[in-house]
Amino acid sequence: MSESERKNPEPIDYNRLFEGIRDFKTNEFIPRQQFFEELGQQQSPHTLFIGCSDSRVIPNLVTKTIPGELFVVRNIANLVPLYDKNSETFVATSAVIEYAVKQLNVTNIVICGHSNCGGCAALYYDKELKQLPHTKKWLELASPVKKIVEEKIAKNKISLDERNSFTEKINVVEQMNHLMKYPYIRKRVKEGTLTIMGWYYHIEEGEIYNYDKKKRRFIRVE
Ligand SMILES: [Zn+2]
Q1: Is 164 helix (H, G, I), strand (E, B) or coil?
Q2: Which of 30, 71, 96, 177 could tie 45 with a disulfide, CB 3.0–4.6 Å?
Q3: Beta-bridge mates of residue 71
Q4: pTM of the full predicted structure?
Q5: Ligand 1: centre distance to CA 33 (Å)
Q6: Are 176 and 190 within 8 A, CB to CB?
Q7: What is the Å distance from ligand 1's center to 121 Cα?
Q8: Which helix (H) or strand (E) holds 52?
Q9: Measured in angstroms, how far is the CA atom of residue 25 from the centroid of ligand 1?
Q10: Residue ranges of the domains in the chain?
């Protein structure tokens, strides 16, 4: 939805994908066959990673983690649905959260936003969203974020130029708050058996900024 995302992709040569599969088998799988055989039996991921569907956000790449470590859900703008005890809305993401925490007992949740996020930018493009009804519906989840940002702009606390990056960051904090409204998450956080982290991935810089709850700002991971 941002300019950089609008250019149409070159058609993919399918052989490149098949070549990638053969390369994986030869250079990744065979040298570590025993690891994959054990991994095939079970998973015990330590972290639920909630990230954006954006093609540039690759959880295992930026954290240098291996298969079996991250349980991942990615959606447009890395949103967490508000807790709904009747399980009627936005279940694709809330089911992943429930399964990761209650069934797999992950001990950490990461919400990861990123720079130049098309989903966050789309909050301000009502006209374009008319032809994307499902995206529009999904982004309703970010309406509290939009409200916070618009109030800051109205009070001149941030400029229009800063709007998108501010939205991307405040969105991470808001989704962390949404997680704390899930009773089984709040309970585990209070018991000390679950931590929640908020990250901001700056793609061009190759940096990740971690949200410091006490200082209420993002601090670059050194
Ligand atoms: Zn995004």
Answers
A1: helix
A2: 71
A3: 48
A4: 0.94
A5: 34
A6: no
A7: 9
A8: strand 47-52
A9: 31
A10: 44-220
Q: What span, in angstroms and rounded, lies between the C-alpha atoms of 40 and 22? A: 19
CATH fold for domain 44-220: Beta-carbonic Anhydrase; Chain A (3.40.1050)
pLDDT digits (tens, 9 = 90+) for 94-112: 999 999 999 999 999 999 9
Query: Among all chains, which residue has been given the structure tokens 């700056």?
Result: 202
Two tokens at 137?
């519906």
Active site residues: 52, 54, 56, 114, 117
- Spell out which residues have Cβ within 5 A of ligand 1, the ion: 52, 54, 117, 119
| Helix-helix angle 143-154:163-179, to 10 degrees | 130
Helices (H) and strands (E) in the chain, counts: 11, 6
Residues 6+ apart with CB under 8 A from 153: 159, 160, 163
Q: What are phi and psi of 107, to 5 degrees?
A: -110, 0
SS3 75: strand
Cα(6) to ligand 1 centroid in Å equals 14
Query: Mind listing the pLDDT tens digit for each residue in 35-71?
Result: 999 999 999 999 999 999 999 999 999 999 999 999 9
